[in-house]
Amino acid sequence: MSTALGSVSTATGDYLSTHSEANDVITNAGAMPTGEGENAIRAYFVAHPQEWADLQAIAQPLRTLREQCDVDVAPAQIARLFDAMAS
Fold it and tell me: Where's the Haemophore haem-binding domain (predicted)?
C-alpha cells in the first residue's frame, strides 16, 4: 500500500505542478467549506475532462489495490496517516 500511495502521490504532484489551473482549484478548495470546495473541484473537472481522465489514470494503482486486495484506501485514512506522521 505504501508503494502505491507514494507512486500516486508523486505522480499527482508532478501532474499538478504542470497544470497550474487545476492545482489552484484544488489548493483553494481546501480553504472553502466542504461542500463549496467539492463543488469547485467538480465544476473544474467537468469543464476539463481530459485532466480528470489523466488524474484517474494516475490513481489507477490505488483502485487496483482496492480491488485485488480488498484494502480500503479512503482519503480520510490517508489524511489520518499524514496527520500522524506530521505530529
Answer: 4-70
CA distance 32 to 38: 9
Residues in the chain: 87
User: Which residue ranges form the domains of the chain, and what is each CATH number?
Assistant: 2-86 (1.20.20.20)
pTM of the predicted protein model: 0.78
Whose cell is 502505491? That residue is: 4
Q: 27-38: per-residue pLDDT in tens?
A: 999 899 888 999
Q: Residue 84 has what DSSP assignment? A: H
Beta-carbon-side half-sphere exposure of residue 57 (alpha carbons within 13 Å): 7
